[in-house]
Amino acid sequence: MFFSLARPPSAYRERMNAVFDDPTIAPVPETIDEALGASAPAWAQLADVLANAGVETAWRYYRDGGWVVRASRGSRTIAWMSVNRDYGRVTFFFAQRLRPALVAADDLPEWVKDAARDAEKMLSLTIQIRTSADVADAQAVLRYKLALK
């Protein structure tokens, strides 16, 4: 069971469309695959990309967001990930001072450069993970997240 009907979801959780919101039931591979449906192979591919980059992932429960994955290298948070119905999400945060480097990058998707150009402060890049192409975008952003400090 994915949903807890004992309490209404928070506005944030509703907006995030989080599937795993019961603090007593941690996500496991079977329920993750079931929730992701056709996007499950892309989620697995993203997990491999992160592991190959030396990024560790760990599920944690947060009252305002349900179960999410913190992707980290050492004590540094690299990204946040969540499972939604029929797709995954990965979000990277970049400090304002890093925006010019992202805008100038030759190998980032144009939508990333546009987002960096338009951001006023902290840049939040969220990618819906449905296909291998989405994983490729996430991998490109990951390279910059790991390289820029």
- Helical stretch count? 6
> Which second-level CATH architecture applies?
Alpha-Beta Complex
Uncertain ranges: 1-15
User: N- to C-terminal separation?
Assistant: 40 Å
Q: Give Rg in angstroms.
A: 16 Å
Shape: globular
Helix-strand topology string: HHHEEEEHHEH
Q: Mean pLDDT score, rounded?
A: 88
Oligomer: single chain
- How would you sum up the major sheet? 5 strands, antiparallel
Strand content: 25-35%
Number of domains in the coordinates? 1
Strand order of the largest sheet: 1-2-3-4-5
- The secondary-structure class comes to alpha+beta
How many strand segments?
A: 5
Sequence-ordered SSE layout with sheet pairings:
Layout: H1 11-16, H2 29-36, H3 40-52, E1 56-62, E2 66-73, E3 76-84, E4 87-94, H4 99-104, H5 110-118, E5 123-129, H6 132-147
Antiparallel strand pairs: 1-2, 2-3, 3-4, 4-5
Helix pairs in contact: 3-6
Describe the protein's architecture and organization.
- The protein has 149 residues and is α+β, with helices and mostly antiparallel strands.
- Helix 3 packs parallel to helix 6 (132-147).
- Mean pLDDT is 88; it is low at 1-15.
- The chain has a single domain (11-147), classed as Alpha-Beta Complex (Aspartate Aminotransferase, domain 1), CATH 3.90.1150.
- The protein contains six helices and five strands, in the order H-H-H-E-E-E-E-H-H-E-H.
- A five-stranded antiparallel β-sheet has the order 1-2-3-4-5.
